[in-house]
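Subject: design request, 302 residues
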């Protein structure tokens, strides 16, 4: 198992049969992606021995080093990369091509080494859709969706709701200007679906009987003392609450959802779902999320 944090300078040419995979970020020490991916690779190796030679590492790479890191990693034998803070947007000009849906999301979290160089994908939205299916046994399109936040994760969630055909989508953010910018960024791609930006939470989906899915895509909740980003009692209807935050596993928002008797879940399923989609892109195989899920839960408890 390759679970230590590497620096670029510590890496040498991989053996000819090895396929290198890695997550790049700064900081990266706390990433549990290696445990999640290596668990799935072990299952894949049980079906096809070539996956015994696929290894996933975490590599600390700062913004200033990213432009030289990508060609260097390709030369060393790396074929798949995940990106986390702060690289998801700054990498865009360094890529040879970008998947169409990732362009609309305005960020990539997955790179695949293809014949012309690194191609960027964004698997966060698919990860979210899969988590909603797994945790609530419903598709995104079965809901009117209220997205809290207007950063990168909120943009991926909003775009995925558009792709998946959600009837009504609303965004609520502390800074309303950022929410308006998010809406414009998505709509400028020829998407004409109405996306509302809310100033208050009263009756966001007036006249619709569909259940409401509240998605927390703010960073409020990352600290155990953080309050809930909204007062859930302002919403009416059949409410489901999804918090993208998975560490801590229980946030104030989820505590309030439970008190009100709503279905709720934290962001672990999204973390696993986006990882599974990345590995599918790299391997071309269907990936076992059970093993990834177990590894994620174990890694979180360590
Ligand atoms: P960004 O920094 O891009 O966006 C942060 C958002 O949180 C902004 O909308 C910001 O509002 C809002 N916010 C921050 N502090 C507060 C506050 N005190 N009160 C109200 N709103 C606040 O972060 P990301 O979009 O990258 O990530 C957002 C969350 O999603 C994080 O918690 C992250 O861990 C989680 N995430 C989970 C994933 C998963 O796989 N489960 C994947 C990706 C992200 P404003 O615009 O006003 O500053």
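Subject: RE: design request

Done. Sequence follows.
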């Amino acid at each position: 198992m390759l679970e230590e944090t590497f620096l670029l300078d510590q890496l040498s040419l991989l053996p000819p049969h090895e396929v290198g995979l890695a997550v790049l970020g700064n900081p990266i020490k706390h990433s549990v992606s290696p445990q999640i991916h290596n668990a799935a690779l072990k299952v894949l190796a049980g079906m096809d021995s070539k996956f015994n030679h696929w290894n996933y590492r975490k590599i600390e790479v700062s913004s200033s080093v990213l432009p030289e890191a990508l060609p260097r990693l390709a030369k060393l034998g790396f074929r798949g990369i995940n990106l986390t803070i702060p690289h998801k947007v700054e990498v865009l000009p360094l890529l040879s091509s970008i998947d169409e849906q990732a362009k609309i999301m305005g960020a990539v979290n997955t790179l695949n080494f293809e014949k012309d160089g690194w191609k960027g994908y964004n698997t966060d939205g698919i990860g979210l859709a899969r988590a909603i299916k797994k945790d609530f046994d419903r598709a995104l399109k079965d809901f009117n969706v209220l997205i809290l936040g207007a950063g990168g994760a909120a943009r991926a969630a909003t775009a995925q709701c558009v792709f998946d055909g959600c009837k009504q989508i609303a965004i609520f953010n502390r800074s309303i200007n950022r929410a308006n910018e998010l809406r414009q960024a998505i709509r400028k791609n020829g998407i004409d679906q109405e996306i509302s930006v809310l100033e208050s939470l009263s009756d966001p989906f007036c006249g619709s009987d569909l259940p409401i899915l509240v998605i927390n895509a703010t960073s409020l909740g990352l600290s155990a003392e953080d309050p809930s980003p909204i007062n859930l009692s302002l919403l009416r209807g059949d409410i489901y609450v999804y918090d993208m935050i998975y560490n801590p596993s229980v946030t104030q928002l989820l505590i309030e959802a439970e008190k009100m008797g709503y279905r709720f879940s934290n962001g672990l399923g999204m973390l696993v779902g986006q990882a599974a989609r990345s590995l599918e892109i790299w391997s071309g195989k269907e990936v076992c999320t059970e093993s990834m899920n177990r590894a994620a839960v174990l890694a979180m408890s360590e």
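The first helix runs from residue 33 to 47.
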